[in-house]
Specification:
- Strands 1, 2, 3, 4, 6, 7, 9, 10 and 11 form a 9-stranded antiparallel sheet that branches.
- The chain is an alpha+beta fold.
- 40% of the residues lie in helices and 16% in strands.
- The chain has 2 domains: 201 residues, Beta Barrel (Cyclophilin), CATH 2.40.100; 91 residues, no CATH class.
- The protein starts with a strand and ends with a strand.
- α2 packs antiparallel against α5, α3 runs antiparallel to α5 and α7 packs across α8.
- The chain has 10 helices and 11 strands.
């Protein structure tokens, strides 16, 4: 791996460039290799910033996005029969996420008649519905982060058991760049957090595939928060043991069930964090992503 730094340029006119030092682990080299393929694909949405605005502003944006998606989808064919209530209605969000999974299809399985016959605008709305649901769910914590995903980039690479064990961590570093979850489905953490009663059997997806897609997290978690999260996940696992055994996950300690993060780079801090957050808030647009 010849590169040492990741650069992310924010803003359209008055730009700033954040610099990150690449992590020294075997996964980083694999991720950099996948990043080379991104040049052939467009960035999904250069405005995928979460938690940098006031909570009411974030909520207004999330609600508007989800309403637009529902309207666009149902104009083609009314597959969403349930009325959207509010951003905090987790049961409604679970229902909408299931709509996305069912009609979009799982990873590389876009075979549903709705998807294959829908116009491009409807397909985009269905894809955006997934993002909109997660934007609503993000309001629970409003943790600031930036997400970069590339439309159409194949999700063909998988994490080996060794990479899961050696590169995964439950801790978060402020300014850390982490692999983004690219599966279409939910992890044990998602199931435990969302209390999802709509999840299909094949839509439970541990973190397996990875791509160039990444997330930059501008927050940390306390040891107490991590412990609480793991305890809640263990409770959910114990309440659904036959389900997880059927998926070959016979112990909660299996790394595929743990809330692991996979760091590939870390921010080089050049200003106070309060100022940094303000600078990002003023420039919520990704102009360029590159290595040196």
């Amino acid at each position: 791996m010849s590169f040492k730094y990741l650069h992310i340029t924010l803003g359209t006119t008055d730009q700033i460039t954040l610099q990150f030092e690449l992590a020294n682990n075997p996964l980083t080299a694999l991720w950099v290799e996948r990043m080379a393929a991104k040049e052939q694909y467009p960035l999904d949405d250069p405005t995928r910033f979460y938690g940098f605005n006031l909570p009411q502003e974030e909520e207004q944006r999330a609600v508007q996005m989800i309403q637009n998606c529902i309207s666009a989808i149902n104009q083609h064919y009314p597959i969403i029969e349930r009325e959207f209530t509010h951003a905090g209605d987790q049961d409604c969000l679970n229902y909408l996420h299931n709509i996305f999974e069912r009609y979009h299809g799982l990873l590389d399985q876009q075979t549903h008649d709705f998807w294959t016959t829908a116009p491009a605008s409807t397909r985009q709305a269905l894809s955006d519905l997934n993002v909109a649901v997660h934007r609503c769910e993000s309001l629970r914590t409003n943790n600031p982060r930036v997400v970069c995903t590339w439309f159409g980039l194949p999700k063909s690479k998988t994490l080996t058991f060794d990479l899961l064990n050696t590169c995964g961590t439950t801790n978060l570093t402020f300014g850390g760049v982490y692999l983004n979850y690219v599966e279409i489905g939910k992890t044990l953490l998602d199931l435990a957090t969302d209390n999802d009663n709509y999840i299909a059997d094949d839509a439970f997806k541990p973190f397996d595939h990875y791509s160039a897609d990444f997330v930059v997290r501008f927050y940390t978690q306390s040891p107490e928060e991590i412990t609480t999260t793991i305890d809640n996940m263990r409770t959910y696992y114990n309440q659904h043991i036959p389900f997880f055994h059927k998926h070959g996950l016979t112990t909660f300690e299996d790394p595929r069930l743990q809330p692991l993060h996979f760091m590939v780079a870390n921010l080089i801090e050049t200003m106070p964090r309060e100022q940094l957050m303000y600078e990002i808030q003023q420039r919520q647009y990704i102009s360029e992503v590159y290595f040196t």
